[in-house]
Amino acid sequence: MQTLLAKTSSNSIYKLVITAAKRALELGAGSGKLVDADPNTKLTTIALKEIMQGKVSYKIVKK
């Protein structure tokens, strides 16, 4: 868990959860996986693996 939190700015569990949830929704909509995963692996688990490997991150976009 600490490794995942370190991947977010300011070690925010909120940002981690939002990032993983949004990425899981993208995966569910058909976006390609950025890590190797078994076809039976849940989308949230894949999203967390992608975050842990640094392939997905949280970015604040100012409008």
Would you kindly provide a written description of the structure presented here, covering whatever features stand out?
The structure is a single chain. This protein has one domain. The chain is mainly alpha-helical. It has three helices and no strands. Helix 2 crosses helix 3. It is globular.
Quick recap of the structure?
The chain is 49% helix and 0% strand.
Mean pLDDT: 89
Distance between the termini: 31 Å
- Write the H/E string, N to C: HHH
Q: State the helical fraction.
A: 40-55%
In one word, what is the shape? globular
Q: Which segments are poorly predicted (pLDDT under 50) over 5 or more consecutive residues?
A: none
Assembly category: single chain
Number of self-contained structural domains:
1
Rg from Cα: 12 Å
Q: Which helices and strands appear, and what pairs or packs with what?
A:
Layout: H1 2-6, H2 13-28, H3 43-52
Defining key terms:
63 residues; mainly alpha; 3 helices; globular
